[in-house]
Amino acid sequence: MKKELPARKNIRLQGYDYSRAGCYFVTLCVKDGHEMLGKIVTPVGAISNRPNTLVELTKHGYTVEKAIREIPICYQGVTVDNYVIMPNHMHMIITLRNGYDSGGRLIIAPTKVSAIVQQYKRSVTKQIGFSMWQKSYHDHIIRDEDEYRRIWQYIDENPAKWTEDKYYG
Asked: Is 46 exposed, middle or buried (0-12, 13-18, 19+ CB in 10 A)?
């Protein structure tokens, strides 16, 4: 007899339109927490636990970064405002914009955050030859400018706080 798995919990905000213009904080994790995207390094002479701590990317980490940079090319009206690639996860702020292009044509963000994330994961998987991603992802709808600044700062400081990170070790 086949064991029945529990239903996956829907972690998206019920009733919210994720194709709506706005800013979204997205986190993707590597399956089983494998640290395959990079390692945390502190440059010689730098003080540890300061924002100058860096992530030295692996080959897979560079593939992840290249795919992040391609998101705005693939999706008109979508930008990645800030991101960090950590050893076993990555964070990014994705902004969906509605507005007008230089020719005066109305641009409406064409897709949902989930479609962008799915395509992103597929692209990385195809480039490296296997799926390294944990199922699903975490998102947070950024509601105001103060929250946007706090999340931006969190992304910038994440490498320096690696040993305190819930994904560490």
From this structure: middle
Nearest to 141 by CA among 13, 7, 49: 13
Provide mean pLDDT across the span 123-147.
95
Q: Which residues contact 111 (CB under 8 A, 6 or more apart)?
A: 19, 75, 78
Please compute the mean of the pLDDT values over residues 120-148 and round it to a whole number.
95
- Quote the pLDDT of residue 48: 52
- Name all domains of the chain by residue range, CATH numbers in brackets: 22-148 (3.30.70.1290)
pTM: 0.81
What is the number of other CB atoms lying within 10 angstroms of the CB of residue 140? 14
**How far is residue 60's CA from residue 57's CA, in Å, rounded to a whole number?**
8
Does residue 8 surpass a pLDDT of 60?
A: no
Q: Could you give the residue ranges of the DSSP H alpha helices within the chain?
A: 59-74, 113-128, 145-157
Phi-psi region of 47 (alpha: psi -120 to 50; beta: other; left: phi over 0): beta
